[in-house]
Amino acid sequence: MTRSAESFYDDMASSYHLIFDDWDKAIERQRAVLAPLISESGALGAILDCACGIGTQALSLARAGYEVEGTDISKMEVERAAREAALRNLSVKFRVDDMRLLATCKAQYYGAIVAFDNAIPHLDSDEEIAQALTAMLTFAERLASPRPDAQCGEDRCP
């Protein structure tokens, strides 16, 4: 992942919600899909959204009652996610971190790590993908991410 991805999302933080027809409905739809997925997986403990952006999945899981933390490489998106959580009276800890390293995370602390939307495609090589997945599985026993070839639409995929 290059510095350009970080800059791109920093610049987009204030308007990122506009990619959704209705961001609040998208958050609710994410909750309806992700909460049962996490529950059925048997994951216990906190959930880490390791590429949280402005918080779509992190907010949805917090709304479902999970203890959630969110990290992202974009400082501006992390700040926006924290503001959105506060506006919704949700307790989510957000901080800047790189999903390839997860340097701010505690090993084996999380019940699951999620990496959705366009997180993995930002990695530049198979080696970076392997590095990120290795880091994620160092910090949790479960990982949820859509297949790279998944055909997602409004009614499928979170």
UniProtKB/TrEMBL annotation:
It holds the Pfam family Methyltransf_25. InterPro entries: Methyltransf_25, SAM-dependent_MTases_sf. Residues 47-136 form the Methyltransferase domain. Coiled coil: none annotated. This is Methyltransferase domain-containing protein.
